Amino acid sequence: MRLAVLQCPSPAGDAGAALSAIGSALRAAAAAGASILTVPEVFVPGYNHPDVPGSPPDPHMLDRLAATARAARCALVIGYAEREGDRLYNSALCIGPDGTPLANYRKIQLYGPREQALYTPGTGYVTYDLAGQKLALLICYDIEFAPHIKALAAQGVSLILCPTANMHPFIHVPRVTVPAMAASHGVSIAYANYCGTEGDLTYTGGSQIIGPHGETLALAGEHPALLIADLPPRDPARLSTQSADFRTV
């Protein structure tokens, strides 16, 4: 399976810029033979947009994203602010290569006072099948919690797609935590982060595609990038056996 990950500045509330960035990335990913593209957290309207509750994507924009994925014949994972009644969720939506919604996940681990004030936490995992693999969605802070990775691996998930908005000074997350989670639980991780600044946040970049043995298959620096990488087959002799070997004391 060939993956694509987009790293770019936040659209910062500009819906046209968001659609343009996704369209360009989807076309390039499809031309490179990728099955799926992952873009950063709350890409619509922008993670640190000052009025996230007042700027959720309307149905027409989601329809346009579906049409764009269908035209490119490439699946898309996008982070967005999801409104349901009086509740707002930090969500990730996977749209299939035919434009059909495949999965919608709501972030469980809300980070910091701002997220906890804005959003309602999600209450469960979401898994689905694509291109012969079992996939799951997590969002940013979720990926730092080993119990979530372990639980998904136990369900047979082989690939986790993770929109994120990791900011300074937390550079250890892309450099250390994400590869360690992949290696410790035998899953591949596509980690799509922002770069540049948005309001009072400066993002770390460091988007990456990590293989199931913790190997770095593609890695961005601090500037815009489109990562493309093929997932290697999982080698049973190299996969972590921590879950099976763990002993309680």
List keywords for this structure.
249 residues; globular; alpha/beta; Nitrilase/N-carbamoyl-D-aminoacid amidohydrolase; six-stranded mixed β-sheet
Domains (count): 1
Q: How many alpha or pi helices? A: 6
Order of helix and strand elements from N to C terminus: EHEHEEEHEEHEHEEEEEEH
- What's the alpha carbon Rg, rounded to whole Å? 17 Å
* Extended strand count: 14
The CATH topology is given as: Nitrilase/N-carbamoyl-D-aminoacid amidohydrolase
Please give the CATH class. Answer: Alpha Beta
Unreliable runs: none
Helix-strand layout with pairing:
Blueprint: E1 2-7, H1 15-31, E2 36-38, H2 59-72, E3 75-84, E4 87-95, E5 101-106, H3 112-118, E6 127-130, E7 133-137, H4 146-154, E8 159-163, H5 172-185, E9 188-192, E10 197-198, E11 201-202, E12 208-210, E13 216-219, E14 225-230, H6 242-245
Parallel strand pairs: 1-2, 2-3, 7-8, 8-9
Antiparallel strand pairs: 1-14, 3-4, 4-5, 6-7, 9-12, 10-11, 12-13
Helix pairs in contact: 1-2
Give a verbal description of the structure.
The chain has 249 residues and is α/β, with parallel strands linked by helices. The chain has one domain: Nitrilase/N-carbamoyl-D-aminoacid amidohydrolase. 26% of the residues lie in helices and 28% in strands. It contains six helices and 14 strands. The strands form three sheets. A six-stranded mixed sheet has the order 5-4-3-2-1-14, covered by helices on one side. A hairpin with a 2-residue loop joins strand 10 and strand 11. Helix 1 packs parallel to helix 2. The longest helix is centred in the first third of the chain and has 17 residues. The N and C termini lie far apart (40 Å).
